[in-house]
Write a structure and sequence with these properties.
The chain is of the alpha/beta class and 446 residues long. Helices cover 35% and strands 23% of the residues. Strands 7-8-6-9-10-11-12-13-14 form a nine-stranded mixed beta sheet, covered by helices on one side. Strands 15-16-20-17-18-19 form a six-stranded mixed beta sheet, with helices on both faces. A five-stranded parallel beta sheet has the order 3-2-1-4-5.
């Protein structure tokens, strides 16, 4: 009898998992409560995979041997509760991909902030260092689909806490935890300790020969690390002190120490600027060292990396006013990092769907660096309440074009207009990419 795998959600990860599972001989059925995108429907049809959309037929789901659910479906979903009640195992796409990866290695990156940049930078270093690798996971390409259709000896995977929640045997050779800050608490019963445990699952199955890379300067990580029995080799990175092994920053130089080798590099030579990016650069360099990429290749790659779209992306300079698109900053901490790296007076564009934001975290930085705030959301009352006593000008706008024009009117020569919203984008935009693209278009039209 074929093992029956039911997949909930026909997005990138669901369709990728369906293709891999079918290739491996499972009886596969895909069920999506919404409408499936045309491109994904075509893929499922091309691989002769049975699917349904705009409904969940319980009889066809609750007869599964295993269920793979999309990371977007929460535990409190009624169907998930029924699956659990029947004792059916629920796995995530990365668990399925891991089972069939063969002898390939995995570098897995998680964390509340910086994981996308760290993933892209690690991939850039490994590729530059001659490795035949693929970048997969949360960054946009299904890990399972890559394993099925174009397997590689090395996978660099960006992984969210939601994906880690449903792993069983997943074991990365190298795991990076960039940091842990409050985010997505609505999915973790509003308990920070649940979210922390979820993040530490990245190292759960690691063994002594594996490597766990983490920030010594992140208080939540260092206070929690001893609560988990981590067997892997620890590789910390820090800006506060020299280390015998790991990466540290002293006197504007990065020191990378791994096994018996050491490399030094001036942060002036990093393509990525800003303190938060120095952390990302240390983490990525350690990961590359752990899989034996040569030091000079790491050095060259750190100098040639180009930043990602919507992540501290320089858009244009108009009449000596710089415009920066940081639309991917969907929580307060991301905005903190963005502001922290600013050296010129800032006109800050904030707002959107608030996930329970605590704006007091950025109040000091706003006071120090921000001369005006432009709100871009449906309900901006919380932003006004948080900053009206520290910023003289706060304006409300309801579109990217309006926000850009208003921000430009507040700006003087030598200022920066920074879109770093600290919120999700679903009130006025499809997603953060759409918000970033509309922002860039509005800057072009000035």
């Amino acid at each position: 009898m074929k093992k029956r795998l039911v997949i909930l959600g026909a997005g990138e990860s669901g369709v990728g998992a369906a293709i891999l599972a079918q290739q491996q001989g499972y009886d596969v059925f895909v069920s999506d409560g919404g409408v499936i995108k045309e491109a994904y429907k075509q893929e499922l049809t091309a691989h002769s995979i049975a699917f349904e959309e705009a409904r969940h037929t319980e009889a066809s789901i609750l007869n599964a041997d295993e269920v793979m659910k999309s990371p977007g479906i929460p535990e409190k979903n009624e169907l998930v509760k029924k699956i659990r009640a029947k004792g059916i195992t629920i796995i995530s796409e990365i668990e399925l991909a891991y089972r069939y990866k063969g002898n390939s290695k995995i570098i897995a990156i998680s964390g509340s902030n910086g994981k996308t940049t760290t993933t892209a930078l690690t991939y850039h270093i490994c590729k530059h260092g001659g490795s035949n690798c693929a970048m997969v996971g949360n960054i946009g390409y299904s890990f399972a689909k890559q394993v099925a259709l174009d397997p590689k000896p090395l996978y660099i995977a960006e992984i969210s806490s939601f994906q880690l929640d449903d792993i069983v045997t997943f074991r990365p050779d190298v795991a990076i935890l960039t940091n842990i800050t409050e985010d997505h608490l609505d999915r973790y019963e509003y308990k920070m300790e649940n979210y922390i445990s979820s993040k530490f699952r990245i190292a759960m199955n690691q063994q002594a020969e594996d490597v766990f890379i983490y920030s010594l300067d992140d208080a939540v990580t260092t206070e929690s690390i001893n609560n988990y029995h981590i067997k892997s080799t620890l590789a910390p990175f820090t800006m506060s002190k020299p280390l015998p092994q790991g990466a540290y920053l002293m006197n504007a130089k990065m020191h990378l120490k791994w096994k018996n080798e050491e490399m030094q590099m001036s942060i002036e030579d990093f393509a990525l600027k800003g303190k938060h990016n120095h952390y990302n650069s240390m983490a990525a360099s350690l990961a590359a060292s752990a899989i034996d990429i040569r030091k000079e290749k790491i050095r060259e790659a750190l100098q040639t990396f180009e930043s990602l779209e919507h992540r501290m992306e320089p858009v244009s300079s108009i009449k000596n006013v710089e415009f920066i698109n940081d639309s991917k900053a969907t929580n307060v901490n991301s905005t903190w990092f963005a502001l922290e790296s600013m050296e010129k007076p800032v006109i800050l564009i904030l707002g959107g769907v608030d996930k329970g934001n605590d704006y007091s975290l950025i109040k000091e930085l706003v006071k120090e660096k921000v001369k005006a705030i432009v709100c871009m959301g449906i309900d901006n009352s919380k932003i006004h309440a948080a900053f009206e006593d520290v910023v003289p000008d706060i304006a409300d706008t309801a579109s990217a074009r309006d926000a850009v024009q208003t921000a430009f009117s507040f700006a003087a020569k030598g200022d920066v207009v920074l879109l770093s919203p600290a919120c999700a984008s679903f009130d006025l935009f499809k997603n953060y990419e759409d918000r970033g693209k509309q922002f860039k278009q509005a800057v072009k039209e000035l």
